[in-house]
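re: ur question from yesterday

yeah so i grabbed the chain u mentioned. its 558 aa long if i counted rite. heres the sequnce exactly as i have it in my notes:
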Amino acid sequence: MSSDPPLLATDQHSETPNLGPAQSDLEPSPLERLIQQSTSEQQEQHKQKEQQEGQSSSSSPQFFLEEGPTSFSIVPPAPRSLPQTSASMFLTLGAASLCLLHTGLVWSSFLSSAWFETHLRFTVDWLDGTKDTLLHTSTLSSLLSEFLEADLNGAAVALLLTSFLLPCVSMILTSGWTISDHKDRAIVAQGTTDNNNNNRSQQPFQRSRPTLEWMLRLSFATVFSLSILDVAIVSIDLVGNGSDLRIVNRTSNGLVCYTLGMVLALVVIGLLRWAKTKTIVLASSTNTNNTSTSRVEAATTPSAVQAPPSHAFQLPWNNRSMDESEANNLADQTEPLLPINEESETATTTQMVRQGPNAFAGLPTWKKIVLYETTLGATFLLIPALFLPLFTIDFGGLASQFIDEPSITFHFWQFPKLLHDGGYLAETKHWVIIAQSAVFLLFVYIVPLLATFLAIGTWRSGPITSKYCYRILYILQPCLCSLVFAISVLMAVPAFRPLVSRLLSNKTSGICDNFHLITNDDCLTMEGEPRLGVWFLLAQSLSLETLVILTLIWRNKS
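ran it thru and got these structure tokens back, copy pasting raw so excuse formatting
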């Protein structure tokens, strides 16, 4: 009996039976040959592309999916954005350059031969022109000695702190912050993780950084105090018998270098904060890329082959009722991938409320009351601070009879004009007058007013506008100097009398001292007294500082 052919064909090199004829007996079809040819070409192109990219392409992880004869490569998104990295790099480079310029200007002011010069300008009818006589040249050291000799020990300590110690500290801190922020930014841009960097924000040096940034603004108290003294000195104008005697202060290079140097310190802090906002955006995009990468890894990870359920291949005519275990298995397979619970629904609802028309709606009631009160103080108190008398000067002594206005009142809104007029009468250089007026206008008037609108816009605007208002407010916050100006008024006004008496006693060749011994009266006295406007300005500045700080803290947590 001849052997019948087997029902299942077997391969020559395998004992496993195959359905149909043996694979070795079949020739590849044209479709299979086309697929194999295209696959080999794609693999060669991929290898050439990897060789051209070099180290950059090898450093980025790749994931491969193998399905049949074809391989697919999925490259995750880049861990950083080039425009954001470039912007942060240029901001850091600009901050580093300004740090060097800030250091040079501050040291130039310390070594300068004069901060300002006191001149006596007099005009007589029978003399041609105006005569100018230099009475005194002031430097930082001479100002300290004059304060001590006039028994103004508190003012001398404040001058030493704000004009010497704080600038020296600022030269160290701005350089250290620039280097530290550059290291953090480089780590974020590379998309790597550093355990030391994760705890950097928890270090005492970084935790105290906002306080130190605020303290650096106090260095402008020296500039504002000398400006107030300059405005007061210019008001000494003796007129009589066809003659005119006036005492003026001419700003010199030392004070200009100091002012510009401290302005650059605040600009450096603002640039570092601006770059930090870029880093925050970059870090968030990096985290998003890492999340998408993890999702790709999860999607491309090969999983074990699982058997289909028992009812998958049931035919209609072979349908039977499922038992309890199979019903539970089917119910488990039809559950949603993301479980729904009440906590997630509540969190989503709260987030939608906070991202609604404005962020103010999602705050607790007590926070709304605090923000409302501070906003009222920062806005409505500005009107009396501008138009009520800031301080007054009363002249006394024998020479006061020759002064047209024995009592002069100064207002807050007049100060830019008074600074300009005083510099013009003292024949100060035009660029120095422009620089002084611009600094005063910017840091005492414009930035506080802009910060008020930005704080209100952060809470009352939409999500996109609120975000930009918050970032600009975060950058401008170190430049709020209205509070420093109010403190300077309270410090400088009581020092008018001893300083002027000291100046007249030393620079009149003893005439005023002899006159006082004979007549028991003074040649000239100048008494300064703070008025109601300075207290409104102080309250308004404190309200604005509180509003800005609470906005930056609470809006960041909401």
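noticed a couple things. The chain is about 60% helix and 10% strand. also The chain has a mean pLDDT of 75.
anyway ttyl
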